[in-house]
Amino acid sequence: MGKRDKKDEAPPPGPFNNPFAALSAQREALPVGPPPPAPQGSAPKPEPKGPARAVVRMERKGRGGKEVTVVEQLGLPAAQLDTWLKALKGGLGCGGVVEEDALVLQGDQRERLPALLEARGVRKVIVG
User: Mind telling me which InterPro entries this protein's record contains (predicted)?
Assistant: First the structure.
């Protein structure tokens, strides 16, 4: 009525046909293979190129009293601004939008944002 336990069954007696059994006796006669390749990642990794500087500031005016963090002076094209915004929003766990040449992130992110910007290749981050 129930399923039989497979582990209680003993394996069937008798030898099985192993196609590689004859090769185990000739193992010492086989030639030595090529040496393993050298690791490719031994060269130092260049720093990611990014904008020379970024200005980070907090703003409340004109936003109904809500705090936002504005990242300005990145000097990136519009397509790259969208890519940067998506990465920063994911890293900070907040919302945001591109306004003209600035990234606007929801909330006060001035303490957490410089580390993310430097990781993306910004050489100088000015927090104001």
Answer: SUI1, SUI1_arc_bac, SUI1_dom_sf
Please give the tally of structural domains in the chain.
Answer: 1
Q: What is the pLDDT of residues 1-36, one digit of tens each?
A: 566 666 666 655 556 777 777 777 788 887 888 888
The tokens for 30 are: 């086989």
Strand ranges for the chain from DSSP E: 53-59, 68-72, 96-99, 102-106, 124-127
| Chain mean position to CA 60 | 33
3 state DSSP class of 116: helix
CA pair distance 95, 16, nearest whole angstrom: 64
Q: Is 16 exposed, middle or buried (0-12, 13-18, 19+ CB in 10 A)?
A: exposed
Q: Is residue 15 part of a domain?
A: no
Residue 101 falls within a domain, yes or no? yes
- At which residue do the structure tokens 């927090």 appear? 127
User: Is 90 exceeded by the pLDDT of residue 87?
Assistant: yes
Collapsing DSSP to helix, strand or coil, 69 comes out as strand
